[in-house]
Amino acid sequence: MIEVQHYTKRFGRVAAVDDLSFTVHPGEIFGLLGSNGAGKTTTIRALVGLTRPTAGTVRVQGFDVWKDPVRAKAAFGYIPDRPYLYGKLTARELLRFVGQLYRVPGTDDQISRWLDLFRLTDFGNELLETYSHGMRQKVAIIAAMLPDPPVLIVDEPMVGLDPHAARQVRELFRGHADRGRTVLLTTHSLPLAEAVCDRLVVLDRGRVLGEGTMDDLRARTGTAAGGVHGDSLERIFFRLLEEEQAEADRRREALDPA
Ligand SMILES: Nc1ncnc2c1ncn2[C@@H]1O[C@H](COP(=O)(O)OP(=O)(O)OP(=O)(O)O)[C@@H](O)[C@H]1O
């Protein structure tokens, strides 16, 4: 379970995230969406203990990430958008290290199965510095999922993955949630979010524009009209941004009527 309450993060005078609250329950895939600079990565960084909230709290499996970091960090797997992997280790060495750290039973067999799933078996004993971007991304995904964490936190999961791997990863996330785990992901891929997320929050410049299931967002934006793209997340997303822009224009005019 993930609980974010009134999370605010300021960099100087700028609020990268302003009073964000949401809860993700076991069994759910939750999507954090928004334009560039919306505050998605800043939120993820707070959840994984890489940046301290200016205000508010973030909890993972009931543990405050800043007050109880060890227990909070033991409860989640994290797939960053630009994973750093030790280049001088082989994939098997890195994954064995992760397996030992989290005391994963039958680590070697599990690693073999994961490498096989991602078509990396032939490369398992090669140094990670020789891996392509997509291959490294796959190893980062395996490293996060190997301990079968109760909570999975994922920043832009599909960047660099081929279509086959992207579909597998989608299915892995769904399977993880269906086994009672909690999944939070950020993505710029609206079709991906629409396909896998049970609930979503749309951010813009640190503020929430909309939150809920696809049906909630359709109702909120009045985009339930028919047509091929009549109710797609893309249409909802742009409608929310247009509304926000219109509101900003209204505020500006109210301040400066001339
Ligand atoms: N360390 C930092 N110092 C100053 N400003 C920062 C810092 N990190 C993020 N910001 C600012 O916070 C805002 C939100 O950034 P963030 O990286 O969370 O956006 P994002 O939604 O992940 O964007 P993208 O889709 O481009 O990755 C941006 O205006 C960014 O410039």
How would the blueprint of this fold be written?
Elements lengths: L1 E10 L2 E11 L4 E6 L5 H8 L7 E6 L2 E2 L4 H6 L1 E4 L11 H11 L5 H11 L15 H13 L5 E5 L7 H16 L3 E5 L3 H7 L2 E6 L2 E6 L1 H8 L11 H23 L3
Parallel strand pairs: 3-8, 3-9, 6-7, 7-8
Antiparallel strand pairs: 1-2, 1-4, 4-5, 9-10
This protein binds adenosine-5'-triphosphate (ATP).
The site of adenosine-5'-triphosphate has 10 residues, from α1.
Task: Please characterize this protein's 3D structure.
This is ABC transporter. Keywords: ATP-binding, Nucleotide-binding, Transport. InterPro entries: AAA+_ATPase, ABC_transporter-like_ATP-bd, ABC_transporter-like_CS, ABC_Transporter_VariousFunc, P-loop_NTPase. With 258 residues, the chain is an alpha/beta fold. The chain folds into 2 domains: 2-212, P-loop containing nucleotide triphosphate hydrolases (Rossmann fold), CATH 3.40.50; 214-258. 40% of the residues lie in helices and 24% in strands. The protein has 9 helices and 10 strands. It has helices at residues 40-47, 69-74, 91-101, 107-117, 133-145, 163-178, 190-196, 214-221, 233-255; strands spanning 2-11, 14-24, 29-34, 55-60, 63-64, 76-79, 151-155, 182-186, 199-204, 207-212. A 6-stranded mixed beta sheet has the order 6-7-8-3-9-10, sandwiched between helices. The chain has a 4-stranded antiparallel beta sheet with strand order 2-1-4-5. Helix 3 packs across helix 4 (107-117) and helix 8 crosses helix 9 (233-255). It is globular and about 70 Å long. The model has no long low-confidence stretch (mean pLDDT 91). Adenosine-5'-triphosphate binds at residues 11, 16, 34, 36-42.
